[in-house]
Write a structure and sequence with these properties.
The protein has a two-stranded antiparallel ribbon. A two-stranded antiparallel ribbon has the order 3-4. It is built from nine helices and four strands, in the order ββααβαβαααααα. The chain has 252 residues and is mainly alpha-helical. The radius of gyration is 23 Å and the shape is globular. Helix 1 crosses helix 2 and helix 5 runs antiparallel to helix 6. It is 50% helix and 9% strand. The longest helix has 26 residues.
């Protein structure tokens, strides 16, 4: 994968599908009578992201992995970089297939995450010279006095509460930011901000202070890549909108 056509290779992406038991359709295309809803086997995708430059020696590779074992922050940073690379590929696939339902992935949706090293063909096939699995993130504990997603989920399904239009737009802007897609984030944040100002009158004055920076960043995004200052403005605007939405949910 490259960010520029004539630029260096930044990562090698290997995609594999681990097969599930074959499902045979008896009776051709005719509907089948079902007495019990048994679970269906599903395939699992394996993504391997390989650094383009090899280690100089096996000892150097082993020492690098040992440092990652000791330094959980460095291992998490490697995972975040790998996810950003994967989501870039998913965005490319979504555009190529014109499939709006092909979504991005986060670390907590992975069945397992591993960091390791090995020979190219072996690693691509899921075999490492040495590797370790990252611990799964613990689910967040939310106090009863704070946000309660399960209760709000029930309220939304039961039409006792309605989600704001801006909520979805802010989530999309956050996803763009986390994926490193600053131009998309800037354009999405501008629309999200206008929607949120219209929907949350109490927060409109504070959010209105973000309008100029968000508008300038969106205009810059139409012309090309954003400057560091413009990117910071987008991040601050998204953070301010998220804070306003948290206050709204707590007050609902």
């Amino acid at each position: 994968m490259r960010t520029q056509e004539d630029g260096p290779t930044e990562a090698v992406l290997v995609l594999s599908t681990l097969g599930a038991a074959e499902r045979r359709l008896l009776g051709g295309r005719r509907p089948q009578t079902v007495e019990a809803a048994a679970p269906e086997p599903v395939p699992t995708a394996r993504v391997t992201i390989v650094a383009p430059e090899p280690f100089a020696t096996p000892e150097a590779a082993s020492a690098w992995l040992a440092r990652r074992r000791r330094d959980s922050d460095a291992a998490e940073a490697d995972l975040a970089t790998a996810l950003e690379t994967l989501n870039r590929a998913l965005r490319a696939q979504r555009a190529a297939a014109a499939d709006p339902y092909l979504g991005e992935l986060s670390a907590d949706r992975a069945l397992v995450a591993r960091i390791g090293y090995g020979r190219g063909d072996s690693v691509a096939d899921g075999r490492f010279g040495e590797a370790f699995e990252l611990p799964r993130a613990r689910p967040r504990r939310i106090r009863r006095s704070m946000e309660a997603p399960e209760e709000r989920f029930a309220a939304l399904l039961g039409a006792r509460e309605r989600a704001l239009v801006a909520e979805e737009l802010v989530l999309r802007a956050r996803a763009d930011l986390d994926a490193g897609c600053m131009r998309e984030a800037a354009l999405q944040a501008r629309i999200a901000l206008e929607a949120l100002i219209a929907e949350l009158a109490d927060s409109a004055p504070a959010l209105g202070e973000r309008r100029a920076a968000a508008g300038e960043a969106a205009n810059a995004a139409l012309r090309g890549e954003l400057s560091e200052a413009a990117g910071d403005g987008v991040r601050e605007a998204v953070a301010a909108m998220e804070a306003a939405l948290r206050r709204h949910r707590l007050g609902s």
